[in-house]
Amino acid sequence: MNIILHQPEIPANTGNIGRTCAASGTSLHLIEPLGFRLKEKEIRRAGLDYWSKLEVSTYVNFQEFTEKHPRAKIWMATTKARRAYTEAAYGAEDYLMFGKESAGIPEEILVDYEETCIRIPMLSSIRSLNLSVSVAVVLYEALRQNGFREMQRAGELHRLKWRQGN
To answer: pTM of this prediction?
Structure first.
């Protein structure tokens, strides 16, 4: 799986998302401008020591991303979507895109992806969930649909070590 963050603004959110990606074997794609520098203390603190285990790519803009990944199937997370994230059928190599904390994904991008726009259902009195929570919710549904692939084997190894007292 792949996560795309379009112009993320808060380093702690991106650090948390990076940690989730590292834990799940998911690649992280960051579309500039970023609201922080990747070397900031806050992003490292949120990502803990997992940041070095993460595959991160950066792009100047969304156009550069699409040029480098012309066949990418991109699911766009937006509160404006008709389809709930649980109604989508995710492929193992799909991309899940999330917009910046203050504004989401720009309308001019969403119009070209109407068929793959998804939303997380929530009460109408709430504007949105925290970005790192939204990524985790949708990512783990996509991973579940794909059988958690390598994560299942890792879980079996952890259980075996635990039983052996290691």
So the answer is: 0.88
